[in-house]
Write a structure and sequence with these properties.
Elements lengths: L4 H25 L2 H5 L3 H6 L6 H37 L16
Length: about 100
C-alpha cells in the first residue's frame, strides 16, 4: 500500500490556512464598538469623552499595557549589559604551537 503523505499534508495545510484567514477576516471586519461592549467599565467611562474619570481610565489602561514591556525591556537590557561587560574582561586564550617532530 502506497501512502501519499505529501498530498494529505498539503490539503491539511490549505484547510488550516483558509480557517485562519476566515478568523482574521471576521475579527478585522467586526465593528470596533462591539469590542468595547464586553466590559461594563469600558462602555461606561470611555463613551463619555468630557469626564475626567474617562481620561484617568485611559491613562491607567496605557500604564497597565506598558508595564510588562518595560519590565521585560529592563531585565533584557540588564542581562545584555552584564554579558557585554564581562565579555571584555575575559582573558584571551593563547594557543601554543608545537612544530611537528618536537612533541615531548
Amino acid at each position: 500500500m502506497v501512502m501519499r503523505t505529501g498530498a494529505t499534508d498539503l490539503r491539511r495545510l490549505r484547510t488550516a490556512l483558509v480557517r485562519g484567514g476566515a478568523a482574521v477576516a471576521a475579527t478585522a471586519l467586526a465593528p470596533s464598538a462591539s469590542f468595547a461592549q464586553g466590559c461594563a467599565m469600558c462602555a461606561t467611562y470611555l463613551s463619555n469623552g468630557q469626564d475626567p474619570r474617562a481620561d484617568a481610565f485611559k491613562v491607567s489602561i496605557m500604564f497597565l499595557m506598558a508595564m510588562p514591556f518595560t519590565v521585560v525591556g529592563v531585565a533584557g537590557g540588564w542581562i545584555l549589559w552584564m554579558y557585554r561587560r564581562h565579555r571584555s574582561s575575559r582573558p584571551s586564550l593563547h594557543v601554543l604551537h608545537v612544530e611537528r617532530g618536537e612533541a615531548s
